[in-house]
Amino acid sequence: MSELKIYSIDASEPAELPYADDGVRAGFPSPAQDFMSEAIDLNRDLVTHPESTFYARVEGDSMTGAGVFEGDILVVDKLIEARDGDMAVCVVDGEFTVKFLDLSGGRVTLRPANDAYAPITVTEADRFDVWGVVTYVIHRVRRRR
User: Fold this and answer.
1) Residue 81 is part of which domain span?
2) End-to-end alpha-carbon separation of the chain, Å?
3) Residue 72: CB partners within 8 Å, gap ≥ 6?
4) Which of 28, 98, 104, 110 has the fewest CB atoms found within 10 Å of its own CB?
5) In this structure, is residue 43 part of a structural domain?
6) Residues belonging to the active site
7) Confidence (pLDDT) at 139
């Protein structure tokens, strides 16, 4: 089961960074901007509910098929009600894991995004809780060697 390290968010100060307000094209290149006049605030733009949102660092590879890799940072909102298909941080018998929720057929199944891992079917004997819904995944594009 993947483990997660959980961190609280300090949204008391803005986390503004300059950004290319005309966008960055993924197709044909466009003329470079001489300067960036706007700023993006990561606390404002990534965190809807600061009092119930946390960061979690991924440990493990059970979600690589969904583009979630070891070391990635998840933005997890505990206030959002989990729905079928959501990526969620769950607690199963005292251990954190991140998986897709399958809420069909009156049961809960936690689905990994890596075929090397089996789905986890939650039973009545399990201590289970959806801890929060993943709203963003932040990952490094250039991997460490």
Assistant:
1) 3-9+50-138
2) 24
3) 57, 58, 137, 138, 139, 140
4) 28
5) no
6) 62, 99
7) 87
- Kindly report the pTM of this predicted structure: 0.75
> Three-class SS string for 24-71?
CCCCCCCCCCCCCCEEEEHHHHHCCCHHHEEEEEEECCCCHHHCCCCC
Amino acid occupying residue 143 = R
Domain count, the chain: 1
pLDDT tens track for 3-50: 677 666 676 776 665 554 555 556 555 555 555 557 777 777 777 888
CATH for 113? 2.10.109.10
CA nearest to 93, candidates 50, 55, 47, 126: 126
Q: Is residue 19 part of a domain?
A: no
**Owner of token pair 């300059």:** 18
Which has the higher per-residue pLDDT, 50 or 63?
63
Residue 14, Cβ density class (10 Å: 0-12 exposed, 13-18 middle, ≥19 buried): exposed
Residue 29: per-residue pLDDT:
58
Q: Is residue 129 part of a domain?
A: yes
Residue 143 falls within a domain, yes or no?
A: no
pLDDT for position 112: 97
